[in-house]
Amino acid sequence: MNRIVKGLLIGVPALLVTAGVCVAGLAQWRLGHVYDEPLVEIAAPVTADKAEEGARLARVLGCSGCHGESGRVLFEAPNVGRLIAPNLTRVAANYSDAELARLIRKGVKRDGTSVLVMPTAALTHIADNDLAAVISWLRAQPTLPDGAADGTHWGALGMIGLALNKLPLGADALHDPAPPAARIRNAKIDEGRYLVSVTCRACHALHDTTDDGFGMVTPPLADTVRSYQPDEFQTLLTTGKAPGNREVGFMSEIARADSSAMTEDERASVYAYLLSDQADADE
Question: What 3-state DSSP class applies to 127?
Answer without folding.
Answer: coil
